[in-house]
Amino acid sequence: MKDCIFCKIVSGEIPSKKVYEDDKVFAFEDISPEAPVHVLIIPKKHIASINELSDEDKDLIGHIFLVSQKLAKEYNIEDSGYRIINNCGEDAGQTVKHVHFHLLGGRQLNWPPG
Ligand code: AMP
Ligand code: ZN
């Protein structure tokens, strides 16, 4: 989608530190990491937020979780633990309107979140 920074990252128009790609999903390091491991996993297809998901996206979302699991293994946080976060909407602090899942790990993460 025009004017979406994550669509531009998928197309290569905006550079990123890519860590995974297949026909449906793209993953890259967050530009402003909040933990030693901070990766964003996104669908290549533009979906603005979880609110816009439909039935046809069921496999895609399941696939994103399996990619997250694979990346957690690669970053060696499989056993130490990690968090997969999606922020949806203003109160949750969603700043980029293209669905993304944060994979965070490599340090003790606080709970509850702020
Ligand atoms: P959220 O607040 O959940 O919408 O998360 C958006 C995330 O995207 C933030 O953690 C940003 O640091 C990250 N981000 C924004 N622009 C870029 C970029 N060009 N490359 C990598 N990460 C980005
Ligand atoms: Zn987009």
UniProtKB/TrEMBL annotation:
Motif (Histidine triad motif): 98-102
Domain HIT: 5-114
GO molecular function: catalytic activity
Active site annotation, chain numbering: H100 (tele-amp-histidine intermediate)
Pfam families assigned to the protein according to its UniProt record, in alphabetical order: HIT
Protein name: Histidine triad (HIT) family protein
Natural source organism: Clostridium grantii DSM 8605
